[in-house]
Amino acid sequence: MKKVLMGNHAVSLGVKLARVNVIAAYPITPQSQIVELLSEMCADGEIDAEFLKVESEHSSMACCIGASLAGARAFTATSSQGLLLMHEMLHWAAGSRTPVVMTNVNRGVSPPWTIWTDQTDSVSQRDTGWIQVYCENNQEVIDTILQAYWVAEKVSLPFMVVYDGFYLSHTSEPVDVPEQNIVDSFLKPYEPFYKIDVEKPHSINSIVYPSHYMEFRHNIKKSMDSVPSILKQCLAEFKKHFNREYSTIEEYRNDDAEITLITSSTVTSTARILIDEFRKKGIKIGLVKLRLFNPFPHDDILRALKGKSKVGVIDRNYSPGNGGVFAQTLKFSISQVAGMPEVYPFIVGLGGRDVTEEVLGEAVEIMFNGKHRGEKEIWIGLKD
Amino acid sequence: MDRTERLNIPETELFHPGHYACQGCGAPIVTRYMMKALGKKTIIVIPACCWSVIQGPYPYSTLKVSVVHTAFETAASTASGIRSALKTQGRNDIHVVALAGDGGTFDIGLQALSGAAERNDNIIYVCYDNEAYMNTGIQRSSSTPFGAWTTTTPGSHYKDRPKKDIIQIMAAHRIPYAATGSVAYPEDLYKKFKKASTMTGLRFFHIFSPCPPGWKSATDDSIKIARYATWSKIYPLYEVFDGERFIVTKPEKEIPVSDYFSIQKRFSNLSEHDTAFIQQMVDERWMSLLKLSGSSPEK
Ligand SMILES: Cc1ncc(C[n+]2csc(CCOP(=O)(O)OP(=O)(O)O)c2C)c(N)n1
Ligand code: SF4
Known about the structure:
The complex is a heterodimer of chains A (384) and B (299). By secondary structure, chain A is α/β, with parallel strands linked by helices. Helix content of chain A is 41%, strand content 19%. In chain A, the strands form three sheets. In chain A, strands 3-2-4-5-7-6-13 form a seven-stranded mixed beta sheet, with helices on both faces. Chain A has a six-stranded mixed beta sheet with strand order 10-12-11-14-15-16, sandwiched between helices. The longest helix of chain A is centred in the middle third of the chain and has 33 residues, at 210-242. Chain B is α/β, with parallel strands linked by helices and 299 residues long. Chain B is built from twelve helices and eight strands. An eight-stranded mixed beta sheet of chain B has the order 2-1-3-4-6-5-7-8, with helices on both faces. The two termini of chain B are 20 Å apart. At the A-B interface, strand 3, helix 3, helix 5 and strand 9 of A face strand 1, strand 2, helix 4 and helix 6 of B. The site of thiamine diphosphate has 15 residues of chain B, from strand 3 and helix 5. Thiamine diphosphate binds at residues 48-50, 72, 100-104, 130, 133-136, 141 of chain B.
């Protein structure tokens, strides 16, 4: 059924369709509407879930981990400072191998206070062991929630569904809301790999000696490394059920491109228009949208960048001293492979500053004339 | 009557022989009696504290029930999450217990505990109180009593603030049940756990638990020290129902606080003047407790 939905409400409906059992959340702009609608739906009995109104994001993640360990499908949502407060618990979620799903609505990090979008909050959680997918529009948002449970429960790792604050969270778009019966045939009830129960006592997360710790981490590695292929299986199933197609990365007019832009989230939509304009002028430029960011879709990226002379990475985030995190990760990914393009790492649109066609055009201009070649980061749109 | 004859505690053990606590530690005793009362349909959540060691390293376990280890500040919230999951599965026959030290309860975990108490989540929260951060090497916590030595309140710089009154804080949340207990009074402990096990909502236990290395005391003195704590009224035994109704157990014997101090070296820096000051604080607290319980100072 088509509905006009803001990104936040697309999430709430996705969570309802996924038949989540336990929700625990704490308000923060621009996420709050997700849980407001969910708590209404819980109160009206539209969803058969327990809603824990916790006193902090730190506790909401702890609740989700506890619930998940006890066999529940768990959900929470947050943004920015809330995600940062959860940091320790994000490691606990991954280390406990709980398939918790969380939405993070991207918002810049304070101080100074900002409520507008950028990805510094979520990219700075890259190393916690969470799968991260970045969404471009509200259809993708609701669909990714369903895919997230499918994948997370297969690999026993938590999954973060990420999108731009305000650009999607508060913007209404027509969304095809999946039918419950089709969702039910796509997403089966959660069957935990292990769960705490009183009939078969277990001890979870005990102290480990150096003789065993590495194996626990290595098990995470094995599961994490399997994510791209499991996600592809999921997306094939998804297509069968809903007739919508997704992938780990999405290429746009990239086949014969000589130079390529890499984008994520809503910036991608702007970039598509720009690519079309360059193409009209006969310039061979292409686009790669990164959907899956963690684990980094190494093989797909290598394939998409093979034979290109230059690649520009559009980072709407900033790691002080290191530059954009997508660019860093990409450079690492392609560093040991011959024939890979020169990387131009761009920093754009921090704290909600608009990323217009002009901003992206300037990036492409820089790539063409080779200015700033070899620099660690290239900031665009800074006032003098 | 002989003391041991009066004990009425089941012999079942949900506790394996062999655990990782120091000799004379009160913490395993707390849990043993707790388990005897709660039974095997129990899930225990343990944050960072001595109990995360006592429970045994992977792949061993001291307890015969399911245990979830969690972050230092999340005993209550992890337990709440487990309870929510069980509720959606219609499992209302299981006790969910958070078992934490005083640091994890009075300090870093207080926010989560207060949140769970305000929501009146259906969990049992047990704080075994050894009056310092023992797992990290005897640093002061807000439960460390006035006058005590710790590694962060050394020598003449002993703790110069009174212990945080956790039961009053918990009672102020108007939870159905909050009680103190002591390893020196196992039958009392057992009965209180039994009582709590028939209630719903957040039930809070604060249990006095000696620690020989942290208190610089003899390993075979732990129970005696715990009994002296109650006799000297430093650690009174009482219950609070719905945050309002106080029931105090008057000690069978009364001693001055100096007797209690003399059997542990952590109070050896106290002057006579300090001891008199502490005696006065203890007397005043005892009087106000009696007043709250509506009983008279006489025996
Ligand atoms: C966030 C965080 N900070 C600090 C620690 C280190 N830490 C582990 S146990 C502990 C002390 C625990 O003290 P208490 O709760 O009183 O329990 P006890 O060790 O006395 O049994 C500390 C400080 C930690 N694990 N996590
Ligand atoms: S340090 Fe103290 S509390 Fe910890 S195990 Fe040893 S005796 Fe028990």
